[in-house]
Sequence to fold (371 residues):
Amino acid sequence: MIPILVPDLPTTEELLPWLQRIEHNKWYTNFGPLVQEFESQLVKLFTQENKGHFKQNLYLTTVSSGTTALELALLALNLPTGCHALLPAFTFPATAIAIKRGGIQPIFTDVDPQQWLLTPKIARQVLEKKSYDVVIPVATFGCPQPVEEWDKFNEETGIPVLIDAAAAFGTQPIGERCIITFSFHATKPFGIGEGGLVVANRFDFIDQVRKLSNFGFDCGTITQSGSNAKLSEYHAAVALAQLKRWPQIIERREKIWEIYRRNLRVMENKISLQKVPSDYIRATLSIKINSINTHLEQFIEELTHQGIQTRRWYYPPLFKFPAFRDAIRISPDGSNDLIITQKLSQCLLGLPFHTSLKEETIAFICRHLRI
Fold:
């Protein structure tokens, strides 16, 4: 079976120097020296990547996962229990789970038909019909959110913007006002096994997230309940080794996409792809099937028979999960149909995309699409 995702993590040899440092330090968690070094290198990386995009200082803190990054960021916003968060129905369940765990009520809305994102325009259209207290746009499949537009949205409305950029590390710009979270899950482009990151331009906010990741301790007392969500030294060791490999990982992913692009070109009238920036670091590959003669499930079975693993992202839409069926739904036109989300859910198919793929394997996959 050709797997849909294969992690690209450091080898034992690449990890060994960092593991030896852990053994020497005898410091395994609780904001250890490797975590501190990783965070320091991330600040330098973000500052370099976002040069000219913002003027304020940048602050960040690592946490144990992308989901806890969302949860703790929401906690640090100090929103009242029972308030409402706007998010796309077309995303991974973790976004909605983090909202509900914070005692916040989700409001599902639709996404842009080309970018597959909840955009500032959609958020403004919804706001004319239904108020909400925070908006959580998602960098769907790693496609970056327009952070400058979201900064303007926050400035004009006063509504906090928390961007779930789980798969967009290296692609999502950092703005002046938005809060951004990332995931370092093993299957992400920058994977370390498990881990997450919260980035903002306010020291006090990031300082509170850091305290909340350590149960909420502040000078020996707890004024706000947090969680045990610190990044361990072992995960930081993988992260530091991964940073050295990051340019090569980006290069390999770009080559894999270029091979796919050439092979998919012959099907341009039958499939559509997400509209993304030219410098996008592709996290996954989903094709939108414009027309298909057989039922999608039957098509998937045929690909499976050929040894090609696929995945339906995101199927079903979040509002069809039992855990979220009581959530409010509202599209930009005021209805609750969420037509774009439902259409994407019915006709998107995820194909194998990872750095272990060979050119002949990609050609084999594309030959057997038979759309």
In short: Residues 15 and 241 are 6 Å apart (CA to CA).
